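Many introductory courses stop at the sequence. We go one step further.
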Amino acid sequence: MNFADRLFEAQRKKDSFAVLGVDPQLDGAEPGLPPGYTLERFCCEIVEACAPSIVAVKPQLAFFEARGIEGMRAFASVVKLARSLEVLTIADAKRGDIGTTSAAYAAAFLGDGDFACDAVTINPYLGSDAIMPFLRAVPHGRGIFVLVKTSNPTAGEFQDLMTEHGQLWECVARRIHGIGSDFIGGCGFSAIGAVVGATYPRAAQRARKIMPNTVILVPGYGVQGAGASQAVAALTGEGTGAIVSASRSIMYAYRNAPQQSPPLAAAAAAEAMRVELNSAAALQRAPTAT
């Protein structure tokens, strides 16, 4: 089944736009872990607790790679658990290189091995030959999310540079729309998605116009500063076509709720996120009073 169709089906079942970013931080006396927890136990318990409210998990590879073999074993466990819970997996790897190297990355994250996920984030700035190897997995139900307009404060340093065809990120968006047109699912959206940060809602609205059939993955909600109304700016007029990720605000919700265990606090935060995003989406769809 087309990845976009799989994603839309998960959204329909759970009435959710929410994605859990699994980002075990490297701070504190026990880096990023509550007392008494191993990395694997912490990440897996958070994923299991949040599963009823989320459509996907998005583990950030950097935080697992930084912990060496133990980290990558935990990453594999997170992916395996999510699959058993029927939660989609998005490897937040931001890979992209010359063709043969991209092919190896695609085999790692979209193949059948220990690190295989349903989708992966990729960096398009080496050009089309960095993207094409990932496309071979798309007919097998996999998806990709291409960095278009990211949520970080200095994103515009390069992405907003003006060309004769508009800002650089807009040029990337047009190319992704063109590539994605060959992979449209029954839901009307492509398995080739885009990443557009919630911290730039006007860009998100512009991105939706450029990429009408693209599923947009929206980071930046929560700790990075974007609210729910900004996070749903990329939705279509029908209220579809986007998913929103949050990581630290969910994984570390227990720090603001000492009376709750980490999994219970995360579950409550994930459900609150789901409800808040749904409310913001409903308001966005509501007709303007005259």
